[in-house]
Write the structure tokens for this entry.
Amino acid sequence: MSNHQRLISFDGTMNFRDLGGYQTANGQTVKWRKIYRSDSLSNLSANDLKKFKNLKITVDCDLRSDYEQQMAPDRIDDDIKYVDAHIYPDEGDIDKEVHPMNPIPQGDMLAGIYQHVILNVHSQQMFKRVLAELLVLPTDQALVFHCSAGKDRTGMSSAIILSLLGVDDETIIRDYLLTNQLYDFANEHQLPTDNDMGNFVAQMNLTKGDGPVMRTFLDTIQDGWGSITLFAEEQLGITKHEIQLLRKKYLDN
């Protein structure tokens, strides 16, 4: 029985999670305590910062816009490397799509945004920026990436990372949907207890994911390039060797 926690409680976050423990198609497991996803890190307490040290987090990839970063800057120690990886193009960024796709049906606004992001040159370069940090991260350290709520930009980044590591789409969708359950508690202005968190994980493991928005995101990659590896090679400039290195670093044998 693993004593690792997927959902980690902090004073200043609602949606801080470990990407470890997920199985790949060939039976390997994503390593625990290496890659974390989160909502905003602007309200971390002194105790939270101590916890960051205990988790050996040394890199913080901020996926938020320039405006969000300026209005609510991350509260992190000076020895943590801060990486600006704003996913959504700001004014002045290259706003160009690289692969023509059938448009999302009208009414599926969020799915359309996700498709636009995965096809956008600027957004692709930001995904690559996070992957580049993972490639050079020392093996005894950890990285966190985050946006404001830890749902959309963080969810897309998680999907790319997990998919490159070999995790199947249904598992990726279930991980994505876990945010919805956490924010049910946020709307009630209370934090989930450890028992609540355990129940969420158990439910996630037993319930088949629906997640049409994340499904659209993953299908866009499959339909446009044939596989996540070809997408990474052709659009992100991640080589086959680097993909193998990611798997070697972040998968248990």
Q: What stands out?
A: The two ends are 18 Å apart (CA to CA). Residues 185-189, 200-210 have pLDDT under 50 and may be disordered. Residues 169-187 form the longest helix (19 residues).
